[in-house]
Design goal:
By secondary structure, the chain is of the alpha+beta class. 66% of the residues lie in helices and 6% in strands. Helix 3 crosses helix 7. It holds the Pfam family HTH_30.
Length: 389
Amino acid sequence: MVKVSEATLGALDRASGKLASAALASMDEQFAWFGRMPADQRASVLLIAQTGAAGFTSYLRDKREAIRLTTDAFRQAPRDLSRWISLRQTVELVRVAVHVIEREVPDLAADDDERQVLTEAVLRYGREVAFTSAMSYASAAETRGAWDARLEASVVDAIVRGDAEESLLSRAAALGWDLDAPATVLVGNSPSDDPPTVLYEVRSRAARANRPVLLGVQGSRLVVVLAGPTDPPVDVLARMAASFGEGPVVAGPTVDNIADAHRSSADALSGLRAVVAWPSAPRPVRSTNLLPERALAGDPEAEWQLIDQIAKPLENAGGALLETVDTFLEAGGVLETCARLLFVHPNTVRYRLRKAAELTGHNATSPRDALVLRIALAVGRLSRSRGLW
């Protein structure tokens, strides 16, 4: 087998700088985007080219060193180089560099036999560099993915804790989140003890719904922040609830943007603690539909919402409306009994109950709404007795 002489290897060593410069000039000539790169990034490409060209001589001496040498060439480049150059562009640059080396190196051979050996070696070495570049990008992507997962978990934790808005917004923006998009927080049991499995399940459903999400697994609890509106007819909340484990799933109110997501999170978590009191609650259930249970569990925000949305409007509407609702509830929802107790016609009771429903959004003839009204009125009276209203 023909070996390359030491004289030729020495000539290759001395020509490595020239080869790298020629490769860079060829890249500049062929690719317009390469000329628009910042100077420091172009210098990084030159560094890789020089290291690769110098490594070719070592490769000729010991082919077992090929992978290590070519890997080292990429390790010496700055970490952010992959943000400027895509994998496809890197392969194009490698192709140009190999072409330049293939064109220049044979002229350094002492004879035709060496020229043949060098030509074949260039092709093999170019293949090693191409494989190494692909591995480098794969490693960078894996590292970025792990970093993004940690950053995402920190954003979700910050939302749950109600951390400072500015730090939250900067981290969410780094993940590509639209800071002006509406946000809804869903909480429930995690479907698996394996975080990658949970991530795949949630992201798959979010992708099918064409919605961005942020998620965090906190022990056995899964917290999902969903972007976009949640109004019907598209029941995106039901789709996302299917990615949770067994048990109730509670959705907080949809807020204007991620800066207010802590309010959605606080209400959702309050609802998750209280939903056990409503065994037949739908899945998912809105935290606003759990106001009675949350109030009984001691949530002051739920108490205030019941007062503000139900007790106050009924009282401000006049005594007849509040008295009719009270009497109807005390009469067990029997219309005729309520009418007798109030000394009015049953149609009058129907009219007043309809007006109360328009005012509060709750119809006293519905068992669930009757419970909401009863708790709201009770909370209102307790609050008034303590001088809080």
